[in-house]
Amino acid sequence: MNKRTSPRSRMMAAFALAGLVWFAAGNAEAVAPSKLSLDAKVIDGDVYVKASSLVAQLGGTGTYDSASKKYNYTPADPVADVVKKVSPSVVAIIGKPQDESAANRFSLAHGTGVVVRKDGLILTNAHVVSGMDRIVVVTSDGKEYEGIKKQIDETSDLALLKIDAANLKPARLASAPLKVQVGETVVAIGTPVSFSLRNTATVGVISGMNRSVSSFYNLLQTDAAINPGNSGGPLVNLKGEVVGINSMKFVDVEIDSVGFAIPADTVQYVLNQFSKYGKVMRPSLGFELEESWSAVVGLPTEEPMTVTAVSSAEAKNAGIKVGDQLYSVGGKQVSTLVELNELLKAYLPGQTVPITLLSDGDLVTRKLVLSTSLAK
User: By the 8 A CB rule, do 184 and 132 touch?
Assistant: First the structure.
């Protein structure tokens, strides 16, 4: 696009300025493609861009004032558009904690959920509903429904509820493998602190990826405000796709804006398992492992994990013993428990996988039949 400001190119320059103002309002890469292809004409050496092409590519609205001979462009607000698009797919969840006295009617717990099927299937965190009775789900339009627990997977911290509703608007999950980047703008929508604050939106960025925070699988880190009650709600990109389900945060006097979400690819894995088997058919190597010191403190490492106990008959039959060091599973190197758990998503109990270990000073490859994980 030509950036000269000669009289012939004033309209073109105005278009460029409008686009720059919009980018300044948020993350430019997240808002629009890094490279645009706009309809244009060259007249006397100057490039003129069609207004309709600008609006089609960048959104917003524009009108031409014949009196002033100026084109007035109003940029789109990407965050507002995303909130408007996704909010109908977000629900609030409230219920009675099982360990509270029934006499205290004000002792309630609440969280957030996401519509994943138009007939009333709701995704949320396992920790939101696992200890909750008399569940009530409130949709964005204020309608109340009884929530019935369907499946709960405490290991991934995901659960499904069912409400008797029709024609709900399902959220759109980002496709796997998840494509997000650090610094990308995201919006969290949920029910923080008080049930009266349902469908609250907060804005931040992806602060980090592949985080292991006392979790079985990798998590996304975000600085979007995540507060009690946000659990189970969506973390969405500026395309309106759910990139994660908000799950936890660090809380301390000196800690700010360190929240975590379950990535969409883990969400899809669990949903697929629920659909096929009614639960997560999670495989296990059949032996316990200890991470290296470097892995425990978070240093980059390729050090192997050490076998500390052998629990399954399959692992014993494969000759695995305490003290062996695990280097790879299925031909892929693993140095942390989370790396191993992520890799095992591709397998089911009963399948055979080659594993490479250092045993009695020799590097050996064994064929191991995967057992069923005892994780809940």
Answer: no
**Which of these three, 222, 254, 277, is where a domain ends?**
277
For 295, list phi and psi in degrees, rounded to 5: -65, -40
Residue-wise DSSP of 171-225: -EEPPSSP---TT-EEEEEE--SSGGGTTEEEEEEEEEEEE-SS-SS-EEEE-S-
d(CA 100, CA 273): 32
Of 25, 11, 12, nearest to 60 (Cα)? 25
CATH number of residue 101's parent domain: 2.40.10.10
Give Cα 304 distance to the centre of its chain: 29
Cα–Cα distance, 104 to 101 (Å, whole number): 6
Q: Which domain holds residue 335?
A: 283-372
238 in the same domain as 255: yes
DSSP 218-255: -EEEE-S---TT-TT-EEE-TTSEEEEEEEEE---TT-
Q: What is the number of structural domains in the chain?
A: 4
Q: Residue type for 172, please?
A: R
- Within this chain, do residues 99 and 134 fall inside the same structural domain, yes or no? yes
- Could you tell me if residue 169 is inside a domain? no
Is residue 353 classed as helix, strand or coil in its secondary structure?
strand
Task: Give me the tens of pLDDT residue by residue for the chain, a chain 376 residues long.
Answer: 333 333 333 333 333 333 333 222 233 333 445 567 888 888 888 888 888 887 777 777 888 888 888 888 877 788 999 999 999 999 999 998 877 665 566 778 899 999 999 999 999 999 999 988 899 999 999 999 999 999 999 999 999 999 999 999 999 999 888 899 999 999 999 999 888 898 999 999 999 999 988 899 999 999 999 999 999 999 999 999 999 999 987 766 677 788 999 999 999 999 999 999 999 999 999 999 999 999 998 899 999 999 999 999 999 999 999 999 999 999 999 999 999 999 999 999 999 999 999 999 999 999 999 999 887 7
Catalytic residues: 127, 157, 231
Domain contains 330: yes
Q: Of 277, 299, 319, which closes a domain?
A: 277
DSSP H/E element including 41: strand 40-43
Residue 107 has which token pair?
């002792």
**Helix, strand or coil, per DSSP, at residue 298:** coil
Calpha distance 191→291 (Å, rounded):
37
Residue 170 belongs to some domain of the structure: no
